[in-house]
Structure formats: C-alpha cells, structure tokens
What does this fold into?
Amino acid sequence: LGHKVGFIGKISDDRFGDYVQNFFENEGIDVSHVTRDQSGASLGLTFTEILSRDTSSILMYREGAADLKLCPADVDENYIASAKMLLLSGTALAQSPSREATLKAKVLAHKTGTPIVFDADYRAYTWVNDEEAALYMHLCAQGADILMGSRGEFDRMEALAGLDGTDEASAQYWLGRGARMLIIKHGKRGSAAYTPKGVYQVKPFPVEALKSFGGGDGYGSAFLHGLLTGLSVKQALELGTASASMLVASHACSQDMPDRAQLDAFIKEKKAQYGEHVTGPDNE
It folds into this structure.
C-alpha cells in the first residue's frame, strides 16, 4: 500500500530466519531492528487446510518460538519516536520476554507521542492460561489510541473489568479511558467502529469465500492505510472491509494482499452492485 514499514522482532538464526528476513526485505520492510535469537529457538510452524468455505483447519507449533524471545533491550526509543504509528500485537504478550518488550514499546510510544494501535490477536495456544491473557491484554489496551479485535477478543481483554459483553459497554469503557477508536469485528455480520463522535456499522462486501482466515490482517492494514493517508473514518473502513473480503476469496494471505488500485476498483464495483456498506457520521 506504499507506506514505509519497519518491524521490531526476533527470528531464528538459521535458514528459516534467512527466509523471513529476505521476504521482509523483498516487500520493502525495514529490518534494521529485527534481531537473531542465539538460544537455539526456532520459527513457529503453521499448517493450514481449507476444508470448506466456512471451515479451515490450522495446526501450529509454537513451543520455543523465536519471536517470543524478543527482549526489552531490543526495543529502541529513537526507532519508535521516528514512526507515525506503533502497532502492537496481542500475540507478543503471551510469554516473557516478548511480553516485557511489548510493554516497553508501549511506554516509549507514550513518551515520544507516537500513536498506538493495539490489535488483540488472541490465539489460545500461545497462552499459559486465560487469567494471564485477560491481565496482559487489558494492560496493553490501556492507553492505546485505537483498539482492534473480534467481539470474543474484547471479551477476553475485558474479563477483569466486569463488563456485560456488549459493544456499547466496550465503547463506553475504552473511550472513557482515552481511546480514540474501537474496531469490533463480528465475522460474517461485519464490524462496528466506535469513536467519540458516534458509531459506524460496516457490512462485509459479498464474495465467494474460499477460506475463513486472513481477512483480519487485510482489514487492519488497509484501514490503517486509510487513516495514514488522511481519508475519513468511513473511507478507511471501506478499504478495510474490502481488503478482508478480497482475502477470504483468495487462497493465499500475505502474497494476495491487494494494492490501493485493486481495493478502489473492488469497492467501486461492489458499491455499484450492492450500495453503501458503511453507515455512520460524515464529519470524521
């Protein structure tokens, strides 16, 4: 989508690590803050199987994963200060020392005035127990500017807050604590975006789905692209839901991410067929 992107992370010190670094470099991602693990940790391994349009099987091996070896010392204040936005993933909170590195990045972003986006990205197999997930996801969400997740992920990060599990309660809670926006996803039913000025309802664009995963990454990247390029919240949400729809209709994930021209063409075509897909305030 044309932005300068950098990654703070830890990879294995082997040919698999070489592959990841080369892939990032070929995509134009800055890897100056990607470091090599020296403890013998391996990359996580994932197998996916598309069983039907609605069902996919995902098998992951995450024991001793190199990305969770990221240390606080690997997180540089000047690098965070140079960014227009810091994206934090809930997966990085699942184990130490990656957990502490993520929280350090959040503290430094507050110090340097870098806006924070927290993508809950809850994956049960990476966590020791539900209590740890609830605690650390809640801590990371506090003070973030934009929160993104499914309804279930918001329930997880709010488990210690005693909320009633509704979008309205989530919006009141987090907006009241300084968040600028919440994106709450409801799968096939679409998503909702809450801001201090109102709520946006987002319907997915109709497609012939091939798989049930990959849409979340497309949604997040295209939506944030819209915000970074100065689009309205409505327009950014259109880009996000368009990217998600396009990705569930394709076999691959990262390699099938649409560019801006493809997104715009898709939106134009689908709106001509089905009308508007985002409703909400017009003044943001």
